[in-house]
Amino acid sequence: MNIRVIAGKYGGRTLDAPDRHTTHAMSERARNALFNSIAAELAGARVLDAFAGSGSLGIEAMSRGANQVVFIEKDRIAAKIIQKNVDLLGIEDAKVIKTTVSNWMDTTENKEGFDIIFADPPYNDVQFSTVTKLLGLLKPSALMVLSHPGKGEVPSRTGVVVVDNRSYGNLNLTLYRRDVE
């Protein structure tokens, strides 16, 4: 399966992606709408692509001006494909970490905060407790985008507010912003 980078430095380039049994890639329509709406946030941003899957969200962010991206992906094959795509595109400030997001949160020392976090957990296990912890890694006034199925409950945390909800078929995006401290 291939995914196209929509715009920016790598626009039009195709990325390898794991088969759909291990990941669910966000549709190009939804990615394009999302990235057009957050374009002003991307320049110079430090990005976390949690539950990275194909890595398309982090790579699209880098293509559109982010400075650094950390990909967290537990699936060995998916992590290898992300690294291959990063290498092929020549992205220098990218780090691919093969582990679960929960394990990374429990063991990483590098919690300096992110400007943008993409959280796209498996739809059969949305791991809201882990997603709630990710909200704590946002810098003041930073943004997190949670991709999830359905319109049910979404995680919340003191000091972080939901600023937007969008639906694209069975895909829902909830955008959070951390309060300025």
Rounded to the nearest angstrom, the distance between the terminal CA atoms is 43 Å
- Main sheet overview: 7 strands, mixed
Q: What overall form do the CA principal axes indicate?
A: globular
Radius of gyration: 15 Å
Number of helices: 6
* CATH top-level class: Alpha Beta
In the CATH hierarchy, the architecture is 3-Layer(aba) Sandwich
CATH fold name? Rossmann fold
Number of strands: 9
Broad structural category: alpha/beta
The overall average pLDDT, rounded, is 88
Superfamily (CATH H level) name = Vaccinia Virus protein VP39
In total, the number of domains comes to: 1
Strand coverage percent: 25-35%
Strand order of the largest sheet: 5-4-3-6-7-9-8
H/E order of the elements?
Answer: EEHHEHEHEHEHEEE
Low-confidence stretches: none
Layout of strands and helices, then pairs:
Layout: E1 2-4, E2 14-16, H1 28-37, H2 39-42, E3 46-50, H3 56-63, E4 68-72, H4 76-89, E5 94-97, H5 101-107, E6 114-119, H6 128-135, E7 138-149, E8 160-168, E9 171-178
Parallel strand pairs: 3-4, 3-6, 4-5, 6-7
Antiparallel strand pairs: 1-2, 7-9, 8-9
Compact description:
This protein has helices at residues 28-37, 39-42, 56-63, 76-89, 101-107, 128-135; strands at residues 2-4, 14-16, 46-50, 68-72, 94-97, 114-119, 138-149, 160-168, 171-178.
List keywords for this structure.
181 residues, alpha/beta, Rossmann fold, two-stranded antiparallel ribbon, 6 helices, 28% helix, globular
Descriptive report:
The chain has a single domain, classed as Rossmann fold (3-Layer(aba) Sandwich), CATH 3.40.50. 28% of the residues lie in helices and 30% in strands. It has helices at residues 28-37, 39-42, 56-63, 76-89, 101-107, 128-135, and strands at residues 2-4, 14-16, 46-50, 68-72, 94-97, 114-119, 138-149, 160-168, 171-178. The longest helix has 14 residues, at 76-89. It is globular and about 40 Å long.
